[in-house]
Amino acid sequence: MIRFRNSRQVFRGFTRLYSTDSVRKKPITPILPQLQSIIRANGPITFSNYMRLCLSHPLHGYYTSSTPSHIFGGDQGEQGDFATSPEISQLFGEILGIWIYSTMKDVDRWVLCELGPGKGTLLGDVMRTLKKLKEKVGGKGPQRVVCVETSPTLKHAQEQIASKYLDHFKGVEKLEHYATIDELVAEESPSDWNWLIYGNEFLDALPVDQYQLQASGKLLQTHVAIDDSHDSPLHFKFASLPGDPSVVADLDTIGLKELDVVELTPDLPFVADSLGRMISSSPDKGAVLLVDYPIKHGSSTLRAIRAHHKVHPLSLPGQTDLSSGVNFPYLCETFSKQSLQVSPLTLQKSFLMNLGILARYQNLVRESKSEEERKGLAKGLWRLLEGMGEQYTVMAALKGQKTSLLGFG
Predict the structure, then answer these.
(1) Pairing state between β 209-213 and 261-264
(2) DSSP letter for each residue of 18-30
(3) Res. 149: pLDDT tops 50
């Protein structure tokens, strides 16, 4: 994970952080000429606009044009650009499945909905866990399974994994898809169903804007401009320009010093409000469970990953994963205003341990058939608890439950 102390590192430090010892320009990616045309016609664009096009362009976006094997990998050195917790260990999805089952087991007409399921690993682990618990303990399973996914290729991968479990849940005939949260809220009447919505590393892919505090007290916004120079391998460069005054006026600069960074996710208000309304409108009970890495006031959380290595955020547009920290306090505030019970913000490590990940790990070790398998289980557990476990935040918001929330202490 890339962490920048302040925007001196953001704007001046990329050269030190990322090797630029060659002056030969990097390859031209399919989306690059379009980005150049937009900038030449209109001037430098905000980083959020750059990020949106790079990730979600209908033809050349990172998530819309790449195959699952190109994006997701099991671990460093394996195929893919990065590894999320579900690809690291089945334990992650099983523990989330336990939380979902415990929350919804007594609820009629409920929908299991995953945000950004990737190649479907987490979805499969959750559905398998729900199936096993339903068979052994009883309770009610989902009557619908819905995914929010923009990539046609990834949708197909998710359907293949979900097909193994759909028959085990009464009334579930197929895996349903929406391309965006906009489509989900436009098409669904949340009061018809009880919604359980969960997502792992979904919100960090929302486009982000960055602002730099100047000595004068003013904030300058990060833009992307064309770099035609012969001393950089990149086709683009960062530029600091005045931002929208109406936006800048509302940014929190309390406690910041010169060259610190303020991050703002333009789409987060709509997403947070939409998720909250889906849950609060559920007739009996509803819940949202979110896992991601958090925003840090005053610092840049922007990161760019390719082949399991950090790279320059402007390198190979459309072929590099871009993400930033999630404003969890804003989510908590929004959900609270919608009269939902909001959990404390909890480290992934604490959440998983509170729900019994160590006991489940020991069971898997006893069932393992080789030393290699046991080593893999131990490595996965370590990364979930000591690697990502210390970096990622878990939060939940519920309707229809007044007791303490399972897993949050």
Answers:
(1) antiparallel
(2) S-----SPPP--T
(3) yes
**Do the beta carbons of residue 30 and residue 318 sit within 8 Å?**
yes
| Length of the chain in terms of residues written | 409
| Chain Cα centroid distance, residue 29 | 24
Taking the C-alpha atoms of residue 347 and residue 291, their distance in angstroms, rounded to an integer, is 9
The residues pairing with 82 across neighbouring beta strands, listed in sequence order, are 72
- The rounded distance, in Å, linking the Cα atoms of 337 and 317 is 38
Name residue 309's beta-bridge partners.
Answer: 306
Are 282 and 400 within 8 A, CB to CB?
yes
pLDDT, mean over the chain = 90
Q: Distance between CA atoms of 196 and 114, rounded to whole angstroms?
A: 8
H-helix or E-strand containing 309?
strand 309-310
Three-state DSSP class for residue 376: helix
24, 25, 28, 34 alpha-carbon torsion, rounded to 10°:
-160
pLDDT at 11 over 60: no
Q: How far apart are CA 403 and CA 409, in angstroms?
A: 12
Which has more confidence, 1 or 290? 290
Which of 170 and 23 is assigned the larger pLDDT?
A: 170
Q: Which pair of tokens denotes residue 178? A: 């929406």
The predicted-structure confidence for 323-367, as pLDDT tens digits, reads as follows 999 999 999 999 999 999 999 999 999 999 999 999 999 999 999
Residue 136 and residue 343: Cα distance in Å, rounded? 28
Q: For the CA atoms of 144, 150, 151, 155, what is the dihedral angle to 10 degrees?
A: 0
User: Across 137-253, where does the E strand assignment appear?
Assistant: 144-148, 175-178, 194-200, 209-213, 219-226, 236-242
Answer yes or no: are the C-beta atoms of 111 and 190 closer than 8 Å. no
The span from the CA of 256 to the CA of 259, in Å, is: 8
Q: 30 with 60: CB under 8 angstroms?
A: yes
Paired with 146 in beta bridges are 113, 176
Question: Is the alpha carbon torsion for 137, 143, 148, 149 positive or negative?
Answer: positive
